[in-house]
Amino acid sequence: MAETKEGGGAVLGGKAAAARVVELEELKEQGPLTEEQEAELAELQPKAQKWKKRKEWEARTRVGKVAAARVAELEELAEQAADCGAGGGVGGASAEGAAEAKKKAKDVNYHREVKAAADRVVELEALAERGPLTVEQEAELAELQPKAQQWKKKKEETGNGTGQERLLLPVLRSWRSWRSRGR
After folding, report:
1. C-alpha distances in angstroms, 46 versus 31, 50, 98?
2. Which residues contact 152 (CB under 8 A, 6 or more apart)?
3. What is the pLDDT of residues 14-30, one digit of tens each?
4. pLDDT at 137 over 60
5. Residue ranges per domain, the chain?
6. Any bridge partners for residue 3, and if so which?
């Protein structure tokens, strides 16, 4: 919801500011903006960027919390198995499962963060082609380029296949582990 400030203009929230920045940038592509629109765009860009960063942080935090809850659940199951005297193998397997889940959650967070950085670099480079970047955008681009290069290197290492090639080894490992448990 927009509040009004003393000058009579609206004070936009982060989401509304981001939406307005998109509108103004689209108008800018169609033709020159008025002085008021230029001023509004300059005023709203930092707020929209801050909102976007906060949303990305919230998404990463949410994923981390889900992973932490799953690890806690697996640890609790491991303790229950050990308390029931179900044998050392079951408790050890659950502890390994908890550690594996924790590592997987960390990998997922890293993967999402690096992919988001790569996507943002592409977006900033496209903006740079259309015109000069703001100081904040240049700083963000310089900060994100190493992560984007990591993403590109990782994609080159894993290949750009259908994904089946990348899944084959983990699936085989999982199947062998399942098979060795005598199921």
Report:
1. 22, 6, 41
2. 118
3. 888 888 888 888 888 88
4. yes
5. 48-158
6. 11
